[in-house]
UniProtKB/TrEMBL annotation:
It holds the Pfam family DUF2637. This is DUF2637 domain-containing protein. It comes from the Bacteria. Keywords: Membrane, Transmembrane, Transmembrane helix. InterPro entries: DUF2637.
Amino acid sequence: MRRLASWLLDSGPVIVLALIAGAGSFSHVRKTAVDHGQTGWMAWAVAVCVDLTCVMAARERQRDKETGRKRTGPLTWPTFVLVAGIVLSLAANLHQAEPSVWGWLTAGTPAAAFLIAVSILERRATGPRPESSPAVPESVTAVPVLLPVPDDDQGDGAEPSPALLDYARRVADEHHAKHGKPITLDLLRARLGVSGQLASDLLRHLRTA
């Protein structure tokens, strides 16, 4: 409940702004469609297509950032679609405006507010997550190349190298921060790619520290 309340306080105003601005822009687009011969359900369909295209393009931009998809030009296709949708919505808003500066400003406010709300929601969705640790990604399953890979018999009386011990500590800290419990011997051995004896020695050093 606390997390839900925090999310509502944080994202609620932005979502409300997006809904209100989207409704205002939707109304102007529908009226413009009616004025130019698109009557009945077609006028509603045109308005839905314009606003829903903007939402889908913004979501696709989020997906590109999450998957690390590289740009192939100055603008990605989702960005081009988003800009085109906003421009079309803004044009419809201005078409319905009183032919004056204030008329254009007030009529263009819903489209601008909708773009701002969508961009804020997109920015929050693709921001860094506090529970993830940038130092050691979860996908790392072996000791980095720069660290010396120990022999299987290194744990027999020999102390683990400081570099390996430091790396094991970061792996254990990341596991504890993400899962809320200490890392196990088998998991530490699999993550580091070392022998069971050496993993046991590393775990003993970590617990002692």
